[in-house]
Structure formats: C-alpha cells, structure tokens
Design brief:
The protein is mainly beta. Helices cover 5% and strands 69% of the residues.
C-alpha cells in the first residue's frame, strides 16, 4: 500500500503539469504512449531465511510515457508498475503494486544557459536493485525484501559560449529497505559540485572546482561519511589531435572515527588517431584509508559496424597490495538483424563499512530480429564487490534473462521470457530466484 500511495501522490502532483502540457498539444514535438498487458507468471525462490515463493500469478502491467520537445525545452515523464493477482496461497507480499517506478526529466536551454532537473522513484527486489542506475556506486546487496529509491538532481550551466563558464549541480538519493536483512542500512546521500572554467585562448583553459558529498547512514553500527575537495587545473591542446589535463586538489575524507586530508593530483592525456584514440590517466587522492594511487591506459577503436574501447590499470591504497583494474566496452552490429554489446567496468571505492573495495560491473546483451514480426533478446549482468586483500564479505549478484516478442495482430503482441537471479555473499547462504512468464500486451501511441 505504501508504494501505491507514493505513485498516486506522484500522479496527483504531476496533474497540473500534465494539464499545462495538454494545453500545448498542437506542438508537433509532443508524443505519448501507453503499454498495457496481461501475463501469467510463475516464480520459484530458494535459499531465503523464510519461505518467499510467489508461485503462480496473473500480472497486469502498464507503462506510460509522455515526451515534449521544443526549440528550447525538453520534458519527459515515465510511469509504470505491475499489479499481481496471486493464484497460490504462499506469497507473503502485502503490496498491491510490484516494481513501481516514476521518472520526470526537464531541461531548458538557450545559447548561454542550460538548466536541467530530474527526479525518480523506484521500488524493486533487493537483488535486482544492484542493476539500477542510481545504485551503480553502491554496495552489492543480497537477501530478500524490497528496496525503495528516491532521487533528484538539478544542474545549471552559465556562460556556455563565453570565456567564463560556470557549472553547478546538486543531487539527492534516499535508499530505504523493507523486510530485508537488518544489516542493510537506510541512507541519504547529498552531493554538491561546482566548477568555473576560464577559456584563456583557443588551445588553453584553466578551471577551479569544489566537490562535497555526504552519506548519512541510519544504522547505528555504520558511520556517516563525508568527502570534499577543492582544487585548480588546466587543459591544453598540444595539437589538433592531442590534449592534456592536469589538476591539483586538497582532499578531505572523514567518518565518525577517522579523518584524512592532504593534497591530491590528476593527470590525463588523449591523442586521436585515424581509427580512434589513445589515453593515459594518473591520479592520487587522500582517502579514509590513506593515500590512494591509480593509473590506467586505454585505447578506443571506430569499427565499421560499431565501436570498441578498453583500458587496463591498477590501484593501490596505503598498506595494501596493488589491485588490477580493467574496463571494456563493445557495441557491434553482427549482421543487419542482430546486435551484440558488452560492458565491463572496475573501479575502486569504499563500502558501507568504509573498507576498500573493487566494484565490478558486467553487462552482456544480444538482440536478434528473427523476422518482420518477432524478435529475441538475451541479457546477462553481474554486479560484484571484492574487498582489498580478503574474501571476507565479498558479494555478488547475477541476473540472466531471455525474452521473446511477436506481433500477433496489428495492435497486439505476444510476450514471453525466463529469468534467473542469484545473490551470493561470503557471510550468508546464496539465494536464487527463477521466473517464467507468458502474456500479451498492446501499445497505444499518441502524437500531435
């Protein structure tokens, strides 16, 4: 019921804005779509601390989107949720909505100024939340229950075509858990960033910046953490093909018990070649565990049917061994009817206990247009956290899915699919969820 109230209140809040948009329906940049469907779904779960099998259910799905674009403004609104009717008696869920989401984006710009705003709400199973954009830098979480995410961001750019450009941004993220592992802490994260860039001449610029981030964790056993940095830097074009960037900063990182501060640096260089670019990056920053050093080198390629890029590097914290890092991106059209993409990212961070961790994210996708009326999609995703120098507390979440779509009439589509999710943690038993569904759906499009 809580999720339902939030969605309904969000719709009520958006009503005046929708009325305003409706008054300009003659604008050719306005479009809307509504997708509704009905599917039969079966879910099996194992490894959870208590029975959570949902069994078989009839699920009504809906997804609404509204987009408007003019010469100086863009607006988009997306809403959706699943409404299940459980046919078995073994489901423990009390919510009338599953996986509800709402997102609003707005941007207004002219030659000198850009203002953008976005806000979103999502609720999902704890394991699936590891793959949401809002949690890409968060701990991999495992176990049962649900997670709610409320986020917002506002950004302002001034002087876009002037010698002095100012960029300001603020972001907010509230993460809460329901019926989940008691070791998972609700948290609120606020981030502020400011940067002023001075264009000195056609090939050189200088900048000053300030960043601040605070994570307030509700669980008493976990410390709040604040990081901040102020600094100066410069960018210089050595030639039409080569650019270097260097910056010097004063960094501070603190939690409830420890604090570190000192000078940090960053240096980067890129060179364009006929089929891509070369890059190298060096950095050092003061963290809660001491001075962290990082180095990487990369290469990108422009391919006839796509793009490919990779980088290899390493990171070292004080008192730890060197940890390797790899990043890879591949987007390829295999044939005229099939596409393949691969993304691998590894980055150093700190977990909710302020321990050093390597965050690994892997995404593999394949799409095939079987014929003019049917298509097939396959996806495999991995989110993994590895603690420096130990396996204690390492966690991993895997999600594999296969979906099929076929147009059965001009207005109706047949949809079906299977998925498998596995959440693994060194400190507790693995949990697994298998889902299979089959149904029909219809999309209504409106354009003016």
């Amino acid at each position: 019921m809580r999720a339902k109230r939030i969605i309904l209140s969000g719709l009520a809040s958006a009503a005046p804005l929708l009325i305003l948009i409706d008054s300009t329906r003659a604008d050719p940049g306005l479009s809307a779509s509504l997708t509704v469907g009905e599917r039969l779904r079966h879910v099996e779960k194992d490894g959870f601390s208590r029975p959570q099998d949902e069994g078989t259910s009839a699920v009504t799905t809906f997804d609404f989107s509204l987009d408007s674009e003019t010469a100086g403004e863009t607006f988009s609104l997306d809403l959706g949720a699943d409404i299940p009717l459980f046919l078995d008696d073994n489901d423990t869920s009390s919510s009338t909505l599953e996986d509800p989401f709402a997102r609003l984006d707005y941007a207004r710009e002219n030659r000198s100024t850009l203002l953008s705003f976005s806000t979103s709400y999502r609720e999902s199973d704890v394991g699936e939340s590891n793959f949401l954009d809002e949690t890409i830098d968060d701990d991999v979480v495992t176990g049962g229950g649900t997670r709610e995410l409320l986020s917002g961001r506002v950004a302002l750019t001034l002087g876009r075509e002037s010698p002095v450009q100012t960029d300001l941004s603020y972001s907010y993220l509230r993460s809460t858990y329901d019926d989940a592992d008691p070791d998972l802490s609700d948290s609120t994260t606020n981030t502020v960033a400011a940067r002023v860039t001075f264009r000195l001449n056609p090939v050189a610029s200088a900048f000053v910046f300030a960043d601040w981030r605070e994570e307030d964790r509700d669980l008493a056993s976990q410390s709040d953490r604040t990081t901040s940095a102020i600094g100066i830097g410069t960018t210089y074009d050595l030639s039409a093909l080569s650019r270097v960037t260097a910056q010097l900063s004063y960094d501070r990182d603190e939690d409830d018990t420890d604090s570190n501060e000192g000078l940090g640096f960053q240096f980067g260089a890129t060179r364009a070649v006929s089929n891509g670019t070369y890059s190298v990056d060096l950095s050092g920053t003061e963290t809660i565990d001491g001075f962290r050093q990082q180095v990487s080198g990369g290469r990108s390629y422009n391919l006839a049917r796509g793009s490919f890029s990779f980088s290899l590097g390493a990171v070292k914290d004080e008192g730890t061994s060197v940890e390797p890092l790899a990043n890879l991106q591949l987007a390829l059209e295999l044939t005229e009817i099939s596409r393949f993409n691969l993304g691998l990212s590894q980055s150093p961070d700190f977990d909710d206990n302020d321990d050093s961790v390597i965050r690994t994210r892997l995404n593999v996708g394949y799409d095939l247009d079987i014929n003019a009326v049917s298509s097939l999609s396959a996806d495999f995703q991995v989110a993994e956290d590895d603690r420096f120098g130990t396996n204690a507390g390492d966690s991993r979440s895997l999600l594999a899915s296969l979906s099929y779509n076929r147009a059965i009439t001009r207005d109706w589509d047949l949809v079906g699919g299977i998925s498998y999710e596995s959440d693994q943690n060194e400190n507790r038993a693995d949990t697994n969820t298998s889902t299979v569904f089959l149904g029909v759906e219809r999309t209504f499009d409106f354009r003016r």
